[in-house]
Amino acid sequence: MARIETLKNELKNQAISAALITQNVDIFYFTGSMQNGLLYVPVAGDPIFYVKKSVVRASEESSIEVEPLGRMRTLGDRIKAHFGKPSILGLELDVLPYQLGVRYQQMLNTEIKDISSLIRLQRSVKSEYEQTQIRKAAHLVDEVIQLLPSWISIDMTEVELAAKIEQYLRVRGNINLNRMRGYNQELALGMIASGSAAATPTYFDGPAGGLGLTVASPQGASYKKLAKNEPILLDFSTVVEGYMVDQTRIAVIGSLQDDLLQAYEVSRNILREVEKLGKPGVSWESLYQHALQMVEQAGLQAHFMGFGDDQAKFLGHGVGMEIDELPILANGFKQSLQENMVIAIEPKFTFPGRGVVGIENTYVVKSDGLESLSISSEAIIVVEG
Amino acid sequence: MARIETLKNELKNQAISAALITQNVDIFYFTGSMQNGLLYVPVAGDPIFYVKKSVVRASEESSIEVEPLGRMRTLGDRIKAHFGKPSILGLELDVLPYQLGVRYQQMLNTEIKDISSLIRLQRSVKSEYEQTQIRKAAHLVDEVIQLLPSWISIDMTEVELAAKIEQYLRVRGNINLNRMRGYNQELALGMIASGSAAATPTYFDGPAGGLGLTVASPQGASYKKLAKNEPILLDFSTVVEGYMVDQTRIAVIGSLQDDLLQAYEVSRNILREVEKLGKPGVSWESLYQHALQMVEQAGLQAHFMGFGDDQAKFLGHGVGMEIDELPILANGFKQSLQENMVIAIEPKFTFPGRGVVGIENTYVVKSDGLESLSISSEAIIVVEG
Description:
homodimer; Creatine Amidinohydrolase, Chain A, domain 1; Creatine Amidinohydrolase; five-stranded antiparallel sheet
């Protein structure tokens, strides 16, 4: 219920009378249950989780009082009878479909206001429990990293490697869903992509691309075979109790050319610098700007986070139950880091026709800088070719 | 461009001046590309696909003229300068987030109208090409069905079986995304669940449930071990070039009790009946109602499509690039079947504590009834125990 109290305070600060929480991940965050329903949180009084399906299961899981949702058309009157009519209703307008937004507004016949930033900001600061789940995820990802030298071979396709990683993680708790909050954003495990295929730009809001298996999902692993002396991008996550870690390492069959190795070293140096800088009170954008300076000093700005028109203009992103959480390390984000925010930081360099090199760790913000939750060796994984 | 012409005619019929298509799947349907952008379709004149990322890749893939999207704040003026100001703008208000709906409405300073039903109805009728992809998916799913007797064993967990199926399909083109249009709906491959775990209700809008691996994704495969004489529900799909098939079969290690076998036969009989009834012109709800009569005659109404308060009240759903397409075979849907609609029909019976039995085929509506795209034997898969 501490999470509900924090939410209530934030609502009060913004003069919002109540929140109607509708998104499955946010509902899970506040109730402990992901059953299908609507969570009503008044600024004054106890919240109610109105559940459509399954009421039995929600009652077992939820820390909030559960009531059957019943008929949708009577819900508005029930809420008004129990809580009074809210003068301003908060909704997650970043994810709630327009149709439903109108419906809930009419149901309570009230003014509506977006509370998505407020919820996303609250969720960006992780509890000890949440950090523990992400640490567990980081350990599982590291198990894969340690097995990769025995898995990678010159005859296999990118998707064969991806499928092997997926199977290993799946039976160890991966739900096979990499949740993203952004409209139209999708992710299957991550990006297992090599050489020129990895450098192919995509619609995905990230630095790496991937040919993908089809134009109907044009990103990530493809049928391209792993080849000698090309960087193999191993950007993947796993999910433990709903919480993800995000990590990138590079492998090669044979060896990489010097300029790629140098770019990889720059990406590691960027991590070392931002680990020291990333303290509570420091602005999100300043970490991006500092990285950009280092990139320019190395003369690599044309390759940073993509190439040409397809460069992504950020350095890192919050990670938790969604892979695109706050904070966002990019220009224009003047907010401050807070203790216990969890951030994936991923300096990468794209060389068209040749591949992507770079690194990514998931960190937690502590009083004296960033602590890495990722535990994998940062050395390039070299496989005999 | 035939798809664009159909859309234009529908817009004209509803007195809508232009559509702004925003959802990735709809964009792919109309352009042939799934790059990140916005598709503007005027009733009069040629459409333009404004692409944010990747412009290069969209230009190669799209059958529609591509222009770089550029700065979002100037897009409205560019559209108005090129096409004139639309008096009514159509948007996919079933999926478009509220925030974005408001933004696009303000960008073109116009009245907006929901065109999601119109687009979903158009997409429900499949071309020969689309049917071919679904047939290919059905063949891959059947390869798995034929392998299952050698894969299933009494020591394995549900998720181990799911992971094996996933790996097999993944390297053969599965994009590892089972797209759903409904808000908050998610699906990882399907439901591989056995005995009491399969009968556990979930938030998912379907007949079967599944314990899942965690409360943070409470559906589908769990750590439960496959046991003797329990129905093993094998409800899964695969994706070929973005198109899915949906199919369910039942396996057992040992044998099933008579009442479960009888319920399974009822589900097969329902399929035989609706195959004959499902012709162009027949209402969607009539197929559900006919099935319901057969279920009542068999005295199984308490078990149909879930149990107790958690019963799902439908018989089948359209399937294509999303698993929850039109038509919906349920009460209240008085629309008529049209030739070449593709529908997954899935009569199932839930026995709490014991399991789920039932069957599902994907069909295409032809002039003389339903033609099955699923090719798997309908016999229960029996494994020696």
